[in-house]
Structures
1.
Amino acid sequence: MLFLVAALLLLGVVLGTVAHAPLSFTVVAAAVIGVWLTVFAIRERHGRRRGTSV
């Protein structure tokens, strides 16, 4: 429950910040985060297929 409260508080802070940021900055930041998440997902999927032998 405490995690949920903290996550909602963080979401409110982030959305409040985005509301005051210029639209171009928001779009660029969203694109960067999207690319980062895509690369992370590809690396994770590739790593699981190969099998981790660490």
Note: The chain is about 85% helix and 0% strand.
2.
Amino acid sequence: MSEQELQQQIIEKAWSDESFKAKLLADPKAALKEAFNLTLPEDVELVVIEETPSKLALVIPPNPGDTATTESELSTW
């Protein structure tokens, strides 16, 4: 499963399951472990933000020119 497919499954579950969405917003790692048996490394911080019609999120990805960032660091899913 690709990262994009996994993200879509997480979003769809959050849309259909208010309890999961609440846990995902409060404790994303625990919610993903419980619902998808997905464990992220301890040193990875996961921030979940719910967009609304009046609240948008802009994600700035790592700079591809930053030679310190490796492919393995970009692929945490």
Note: The mean pLDDT is 90.
3.
Amino acid sequence: MAEPLKVVEGTALTAQQKKDLLNRLARIEGQLRGVQKLIALAAEPSDCEAVAQQMAAARKALDRSFVQLLTATVLTHSEGAADLDDARAVATRLAALLDKFA
């Protein structure tokens, strides 16, 4: 079994936000292992529907974790803004992040 990740402290995300995201990703990891098993065991054409259903569920879960990350980032970074100009700079960085990855 792999060693647990060392979670560092910083200003990117709070400890609770990191914990929540890591837990969600661990569940997705389990879903993907299940998909791999379904693919390995697929014997009939109808088995592909179960694989597709589980892949769609994993994709939706990963999309939801992406939204959770962005939400946490907005909250954490906007709360840390020193003044209005800093808040605008944070908003600009977050908008660029959304434009790039969403």
Note: The chain has a mean pLDDT of 91.
